[in-house]
Design a protein that fits this description.
Layout: E1 4-5, H1 10-32, H2 46-52, H3 54-80, E2 83-84, H4 86-100, H5 102-111, H6 116-142, H7 152-179, H8 184-204
Antiparallel strand pairs: 1-2
């Protein structure tokens, strides 16, 4: 498979954008389907029934934030690309497959919030998706697909920002077996740390 240039082959390049946008949109839509009053609480007073949905709502909020973060990260990668090739497309498919699994692990977490393994499973999935995201950036850099090559301090910041979620998500997966829901704090920590790194990166530009 050859290369497709953003300017010379806008239709082919646009197909990649359309595919990724579609998968993210469907994943976000599927998340809300897990929000329902548990069957055992159907006859309870409304306030009590709504309280029983708390674990599902917690999983929903976390999942929306996670999918949104991955979408913004991938959007940033697409904005950096000038070309796409077969290798990048090959990496994109399993990446999107992992994103598509997020509603499933959200459902597991909603149904079994008391089990540490549910949080560990979620962390493993997010860590794997982060690895695929980093591989796509590395491939694009190595194959000269970026509008501007990553050099100097800019390259360091991109490595740091790509590696941050890998480390924290996979670390949380292991610790989740011991601390359960507290492992989510590792996920939350990604956002402020990445925001600081992004701000420092812009200053260096």
């Amino acid at each position: 498979m050859g290369r497709y240039d953003r300017d010379a082959d806008p239709v082919e390049f646009g197909r990649l954008v359309a595919l990724t946008d579609g998968v993210f949109a469907i994943a976000l839509t599927l998340l809300v389907l897990d929000l329902a009053i548990p069957a055992q609480a159907a006859d309870a007073p409304l306030a009590e029934a709504l309280a029983d949905t708390a674990p599902r709502f917690f999983a929903f909020v976390i999942s929306v934030a996670v999918v949104g973060t991955f979408f913004l990260s991938h959007h940033e990668l697409l904005s950096m690309l000038q070309k796409v090739d077969g290798g990048l497309l090959g990496l994109t498919i399993p990446y999107l497959g992992l994103i598509a699994l997020i509603p499933f692990v959200q459902s597991v977490l909603s149904d079994r919030p008391e089990e540490n393994l549910a949080f560990a499973l979620y962390g493993i999935l997010l860590g794997c998706a982060s690895i695929m995201g980093a591989l796509m950036l590395w491939h694009a850099h190595r194959r000269g697909l970026l509008r501007q090559p990553l050099v100097g301090r800019n390259a360091w910041f991109e490595v740091a920002r790509s590696g941050l979620p890998i480390v924290l998500f996979l670390s949380s997966a292991g610790l989740a077996l011991l601390i359960g829901e507290w492992a989510v704090l590792f996920w939350v920590a990604i956002w402020p740390i990445d925001a600081v790194l992004a701000r420092l990166q812009r200053r260096e530009a």
